[in-house]
Amino acid sequence: MMVVKIMKMIVVGALILASLACTSSPIATGFPEESWEISRGAIDDDPLIVRKNREALAFAKGSEAYSYRVMIAIGINRVDENGLPTPEASADLYQFEDKVGLVLKGTDSVIALVLTAQKMRQLVFYTAQPDKVDRVLEKMKESESGLYWGYEIAYDADWSLYH
Fold first, then answer.
1. Predicted confidence (pLDDT) at residue 48 exceeds the cutoff of 50
2. How many Cα atoms sit within 13 Å of 19 on the Cβ side?
3. Which terminus of the chain has a smaller tally of CB atoms within 10 A, N or C?
């Protein structure tokens, strides 16, 4: 249990540093929503891709109700030479993102960031209902066995990862 907490702290710290190091130049996304911006950066010379939902800030930042960050970390076991997901792994990750989006739909949550780094993807939501999100994700963990994943909910009224 202690090892899991230590790993979470390392991942959170690395992702905070990486999000600060990313360039802000958007690249083509291919997503239907115009609200997504993609940036590239690096963690110790390893690539990092950040998808940022520009609409999230306008939707929820001004409200104190969205003061809890939900970080969902997904392990990626099929990677290319840079440690990023293969096309097949990407398809699985997008399906998982859709599932998470569906289960969180009734929890007053908004997705803010999607971070893809060395063998890992992080989904970052902000929510007004942390207890409900916790129950929903725990239930999802019981039934979802296709990917190795975990989550953490923490108070973050300043949206520290989003900036």
1. yes
2. 21
3. N
CB distance 13 to 79 below 8 Å: no
What is the helix (H) or strand (E) element at residue 46, kind and residue range? strand 46-53
> Which run of H or of E encompasses 20?
helix 2-21
Residue-wise pLDDT for 54-67, tens only, equals 888 777 755 667 89
Distances (CA, A) of 4 to 59, 120, 150, 152: 33, 15, 10, 11
Question: Alpha-carbon distance 23 to 25, whole Å?
Answer: 6
Do residues 127 and 107 touch, judged by C-beta distance below 8 A?
yes
CA dist 90 to 35, 93, 96, 123, Å?
20, 5, 10, 14
Task: Tell me the pairing of strands 36-43 and 109-117.
Answer: unpaired
* Relative orientation angle of helices 87-103 and 130-143, to the nearest 10 degrees: 130
